[in-house]
């Protein structure tokens, strides 16, 4: 079986996780390709539609690190991030029939599931702590705090990358993409005209695109 | 439409971030079908966002996969295998309270639906019951009518059998002075001596009086029996009278109720006299 470039780039990383010292539980090597047959994206999708456990295991091995990274970015509490990752994969398994490959790539679909579960989790938590009127400000601050936190603990690759991205661009991408906020909410929370938020969104994504080329 | 201006408006970025309104989403997806450059742009922005997400990637601990695989196989992972934090407890509580919330909502919804159905079915049952009562009343009516028809048919058949008998002789009685238009038919079987009377027309007698039928044998009247007149509008057909042998004439007289051994009252109709 062949491995296409799309699946190769989602191989799990061979480095430490965001929780610093607890890396002993983690697969530090990448034995995936030697133990499990490699799938093309089409084969993987077909296998998942047929509820094939091996295909699901392969999906997990190849995408869990990427999804976990997104979840950690939104929910810094380790135990909760584990639960959300598990819920996300369970949802992927149970609702695979609703994935429409014509609407976008598998990775986009899965990131959206994980991201939305994580966002829902933080929002319901904020709501429960009775800070309803403060929730927007709090959540925005949290995403911003998370920025400094991750810079301390994240891998060198990310640090180097983020240094190239303008801080105000990173802020707006993080709030919109990881925070799941609307541009109106960002405008309110950052006390910035909506027009500026819109212009900045586009410039930020243009720079991101250039950097990742 | 200026597609370049559309692309530069920032809508593609908002679409890729999933923050478009549903109208904007629909418009973009329709435009992307006509203008492939829109689809290409969406794809590139998505790829860069994915690339950004991938920059954050971190391997989760092995236990997450173990629990996950158990769950998709329908096994319940053991809680003790997990690190339990303070937040964990709160989450369990909130999940279960959510569960009860949903269960209560579902129960209420079911109750509402079932109550509504009760009304519907009660209505259906009531109307069915009414229909059934109507139908069974109708059925009884039909049966009653059938019984009446059957009886009158049997009577008619009996009458017909009497009349068709070859030994039967028909005689017409004519009205006399008190009732000149009185009319009656006498049927007499000369083999069996059976006599039948078919009254066509006689005036209604006073309450204390009754018509009596006489057969005349050798000039002597012999009691042929009392005549039961039918209520007007009813055809009572042919009545069997007392059998009398060798009768050569017949008469009907009006007598006291119950009849007399010899005719005393006025003669209303006769044959052969």
Strands, helices and their partners?
The complex is a heterodimer of chains A (213) and B (273).
Chain A: H1 5-8, H2 32-35, H3 41-49, H4 53-74, H5 78-94, H6 106-128, H7 135-153, H8 156-164, H9 167-178, H10 183-189, H11 194-212
Chain B: H1 3-8, H2 11-17, H3 22-34, H4 36-55, H5 62-72, H6 86-164, E1 168-175, E2 183-189, E3 195-201, E4 209-217, E5 220-226, E6 239-241, E7 249-256, E8 267-271
Antiparallel strand pairs in B: 1-2, 1-8, 2-3, 3-6, 4-5, 4-7, 7-8
**How many discrete domains of chain B?**
3
- Structural class assignment of chain A: mainly alpha
Count of DSSP strands of chain B: 8
**Strand numbers in spatial order across the main sheet of chain B:** 5-4-7-8-1-2-3-6
**What structural category do the secondary elements of chain B indicate?**
alpha+beta
| Low-pLDDT residue intervals, each spanning 5 or more residues of chain B | 78-93
Shape of chain A: globular
Labels describing this entry:
heterodimer, A: 213 residues, mainly alpha, Rna Polymerase Sigma Factor, Chain: A, Arc Repressor Mutant, subunit A, 2 domains, 11 helices, globular, disordered N terminus, B: 273 residues, alpha+beta, 3 domains, 8-stranded antiparallel beta sheet, 6 helices, 20% strand, rod-shaped
Please provide a written account of the structure.
The complex is a heterodimer of chains A (213) and B (273). With 213 residues, chain A is mainly α. Chain A has two domains: 11-129, Rna Polymerase Sigma Factor, Chain: A (Orthogonal Bundle); 134-213, Arc Repressor Mutant, subunit A (Orthogonal Bundle). Chain A is 68% helix and 0% strand. In chain A, α3 packs across α4, α7 (135-153) crosses α9 and α9 crosses α11. Chain A starts with a helix and ends with a helix. Chain B has six helices and eight strands, in the order ααααααββββββββ. Chain B folds into three domains: 3-58, no CATH class; 83-164; 168-271, no CATH class. Chain B is an alpha+beta fold and 273 residues long. An eight-stranded antiparallel beta sheet of chain B has the order 5-4-7-8-1-2-3-6. In chain B, α3 packs across α4 (36-55). Chain B has helices spanning 3-8, 11-17, 22-34, 36-55, 62-72, 86-164, and strands spanning 168-175, 183-189, 195-201, 209-217, 220-226, 239-241, 249-256, 267-271. Chains A and B meet through α4, α5, α6, α8 and α9 of A and α2, α4, α5 and α6 of B.
């Amino acid at each position: 079986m062949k491995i296409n470039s799309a699946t190769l780039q989602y191989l799990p990383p061979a480095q430490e996780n965001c929780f610093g010292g607890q890396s002993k539980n983690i697969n530090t090597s990448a034995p995936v390709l030697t133990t499990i047959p490699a799938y093309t994206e089409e084969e993987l999708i077909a296998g998942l539609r047929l509820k094939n456990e091996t295909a699901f295991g392969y999906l997990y091995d190849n995408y869990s690190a990427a999804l976990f990274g997104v979840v950690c970015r939104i929910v810094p509490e380790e135990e909760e991030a584990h639960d959300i990752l598990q819920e996300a994969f369970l949802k992927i398994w149970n609702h695979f029939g609703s994935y429409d490959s014509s609407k976008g790539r598998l990775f986009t679909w899965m990131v959206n599931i994980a991201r939305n579960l994580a966002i829902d989790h933080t929002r319901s938590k904020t709501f429960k702590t009775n800070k309803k009127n403060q929730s927007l400000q709090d959540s925005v601050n949290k995403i911003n705090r998370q920025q400094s936190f991750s810079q301390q603990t994240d891998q060198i690759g990310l640090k180097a990358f983020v240094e190239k991205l303008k801080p105000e661009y990173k802020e707006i991408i993080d709030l919109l993409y990881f925070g799941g906020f609307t541009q109106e909410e960002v405008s309110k929370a950052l006390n910035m005209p909506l027009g500026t938020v819109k212009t900045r969104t586009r410039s930020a994504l243009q720079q991101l695109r250039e950097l990742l080329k | 439409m200026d597609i370049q201006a559309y692309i530069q408006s920032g809508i593609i970025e908002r679409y890729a971030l999933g923050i478009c309104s549903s109208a904007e989403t629909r418009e973009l997806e329709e435009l992307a079908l006509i203008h492939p450059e829109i689809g290409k742009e969406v794809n590139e922005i998505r790829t860069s966002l994915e690339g950004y997400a991938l920059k954050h990637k971190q391997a989760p601990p092995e236990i997450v996969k173990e629990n996950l695989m158990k769950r998709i196989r329908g096994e319940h992972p053991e809680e003790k295998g997990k690190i339990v934090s303070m937040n964990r407890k709160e989450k369990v509580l909130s999940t279960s309270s959510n569960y009860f919330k949903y269960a209560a909502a579902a129960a209420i919804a079911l109750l509402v639906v079932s109550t509504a159905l009760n009304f519907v079915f009660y209505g259906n049952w009531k109307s069915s019951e009414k229909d059934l009562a109507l139908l069974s009343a109708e059925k009884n009516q039909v049966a009653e009518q059938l019984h009446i028809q059957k009886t009158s048919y049997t009577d008619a058949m009996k009458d017909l059998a009497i009349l068709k008998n070859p030994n039967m002789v028909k005689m017409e009685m004519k009205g006399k002075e008190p009732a000149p238009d009185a009319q009656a038919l006498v049927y007499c079987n000369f083999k069996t001596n059976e006599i039948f009377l078919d009254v066509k027309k006689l005036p209604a007698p006073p309450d204390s009086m009754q018509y009596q039928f006489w057969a005349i044998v050798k000039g002597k009247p012999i009691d042929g029996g009392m005549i039961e007149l039918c209520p007007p509008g009813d055809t009572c057909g042919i009545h069997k009278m007392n059998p009398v042998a060798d009768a050569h004439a017949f008469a009907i007289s009006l007598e006291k109720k119950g009849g007399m051994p010899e005719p005393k009252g006025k003669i209303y109709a006769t044959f052969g006299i």
